[in-house]
Structure to design on (376 residues):
């Protein structure tokens, strides 16, 4: 079935009532005095965020903001795919598919879509396609095994063809980076270029070589991730179903699981809100909660581990541009990456972290526009 169906975000009042009831009845754990965030999500902060989510946060306002954009669903490879398709008002706009990662969603793109579709210079305009990854958000749970980044890239290339785009670009961060790369590998006749804000490879066999201060700082951050910040990845890549019971039943649990990453992975001053607004964070968490996709979104890790990281070590001949944000969780010097990628554009960004489209939408949009000018 190749039909494209308009979609409206419409969460039932009963689901909102259920969320508020569950938040009010949360059974909180204990916490060691003075522990802060050392052991994980700090309880005082999560309690305050849960209180705000239940009593002050306005989902209906967020829903209206989402519905300002044009949403659709279609079926590809047996899987429901939800996507935003926001066409530019400017003729000659360049088609661009942008892909999110975990624990993100299409909410990541709420502040960047207008910057791409209706820029100051109409010559820089894009028609933007922003899908929810299979297993995430309004795409709903995956129905079968195997939805790794290669299969997802194939589905997204099919989507672009179904929308009538014969030439286009791909952009992404986190899983969206790997998906965008695999779109370039798998659909080179139509995907002309790839832009990412996340790109990593281990040190070459002959060692790291001489590093600049910025490069050493990036590697220090990478080491911190692997030694203290990657426990979630081990769980999600081995036993995602076990994790799903707690996160699907407890909104406070889902909130803590995601909020911890927003603190650790953004360029902030010690509080998430200095990088991403509280309401925007809760809209993203709400999307996971209302769609009950905590477990199915985690399956991407399992599928990638069991596919051997499909596609990730293949050379990418498609031209690629990189926006390198200073507080990204995994970083590698450009010279480590060049043997594996056809890098034609590289920008060391001044500020920002893992959720670049939310943290620094203007800077990211500017870099995307700059990169794709050569392909129009």
């Amino acid at each position: 079935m190749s039909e494209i169906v308009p979609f409206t975000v419409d969460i039932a009042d009963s689901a909102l009532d259920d969320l508020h009831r569950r938040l009010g009845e949360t059974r909180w754990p204990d916490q060691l005095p003075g522990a802060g965030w050392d052991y994980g999500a700090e309880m005082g902060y999560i309690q305050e965020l849960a209180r705000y989510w239940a009593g002050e946060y306005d989902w209906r306002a967020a829903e209206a903001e989402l519905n300002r954009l044009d949403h659709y669903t279609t079926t590809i490879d047996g899987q429901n795919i939800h996507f935003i398709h926001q066409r530019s008002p400017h003729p000659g706009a360049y088609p661009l598919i942008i892909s999110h990662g975990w624990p993100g969603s299409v909410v990541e793109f709420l502040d960047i879509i207008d910057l791409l579709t209706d820029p100051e210079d109409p010559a820089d305009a894009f028609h933007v396609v922003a899908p929810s990854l299979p297993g995430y958000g309004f795409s709903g749970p995956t129905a079968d095994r195997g939805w790794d980044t290669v299969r997802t890239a194939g589905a997204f290339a099919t989507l672009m063809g179904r929308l009538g785009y014969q030439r286009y670009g791909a952009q992404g961060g986190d899983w969206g980076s790997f998906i965008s790369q695999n779109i370039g590998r798998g659909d080179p006749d139509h995907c002309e270029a790839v832009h990412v804000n996340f790109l990593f490879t281990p040190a070459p066999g002959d060692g790291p070589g001489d590093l600049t201060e910025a490069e050493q700082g990036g590697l220090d951050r990478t080491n911190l991730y692997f030694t203290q910040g990657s426990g979630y990845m081990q769980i999600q890549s081995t036993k995602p179903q076990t994790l799903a019971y707690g996160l699907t039943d407890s909104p406070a649990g889902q909130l803590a699981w995601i909020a911890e990453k927003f603190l650790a992975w953004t360029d902030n001053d010690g509080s998430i809100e200095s990088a991403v607004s509280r309401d925007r964070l809760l809209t993203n968490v709400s999307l996971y909660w209302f769609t009950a996709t905590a477990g199915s979104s985690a399956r991407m890790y399992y599928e990638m581990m069991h596919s051997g990281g499909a596609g990730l070590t293949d050379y990418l001949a498609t031209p690629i541009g990189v926006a390198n944000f200073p507080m990204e969780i995994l970083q590698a010097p450009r010279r480590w990456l060049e043997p594996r990628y056809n890098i034609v554009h590289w920008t060391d960004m001044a500020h920002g972290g893992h959720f670049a489209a939310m943290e620094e939408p203007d800077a990211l949009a500017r870099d995307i526009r700059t990169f794709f000018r050569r392909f129009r």
